[in-house]
């Protein structure tokens, strides 16, 4: 009853923080440039009428997608359902969730095409597909590059962060934030630093309140979902700035994280 309400409030405040940032599309120079160059059509001048048949296809796609999500949840909840293999050295290997998600969602995409009888030629020429493929390439390049660098130097970062936290325990939340930037994983950050926090005598409830700090991977715009969101935004208003770190997710990310931690502390102090 601490993390859920605190992060929910943090996300809401973060959304409000950027509600009035920027200008309307009619006044946005990048959007207008794309319209004038013919990269995209002016949305206000385009109307779409969806037929009953298209609505039915959309419903079928949603149902198939939800089935895929359900399968992933089941495979994640019951590991014994995932296929396992005996390797050449005699050890057993069970498929991880990464492989399961890839297999299931690729299969789901194929089933959508089959059951909705989608025109593949038109699908691959659509703006959404093109943006999606650009995001995939960007993810494979930027995210893997960052992951390779940090994983290759993780012991260096981990050792120095542990020394800082040991000397200054009140900086533990900041250490969580920094480590999450390096590890690209909430679970890995918790697994790495929370035992140290317990050893330092930080109250368990305080550690729970600090949990939102493990969401710092928005700081450097190389996390897959960040890269994908930028690529999917056809208007060009979601972007990486000139100095890389001044990107569209920085302000809402910091606001949501700080507010979530503050609300978490408030909850453990007064409830």
From TrEMBL:
It is found in: Cell inner membrane. It comes from the Bacteria. Keywords: Cell inner membrane, Cell membrane, Membrane, Transmembrane, Transmembrane helix, Transport. It is a multi-pass membrane protein. GO terms for cellular component: plasma membrane. GO terms for molecular function: C4-dicarboxylate transmembrane transporter activity. The keyword Cell membrane applies. The chain crosses the membrane at residues 6-25, 58-81, 93-115, 127-146, 166-184, 196-220, 251-270. The keyword Cell membrane applies. Its main location: membrane. Belongs to the DcuA/DcuB transporter (TC 2.A.13.1) family. This is Anaerobic C4-dicarboxylate transporter DcuB.
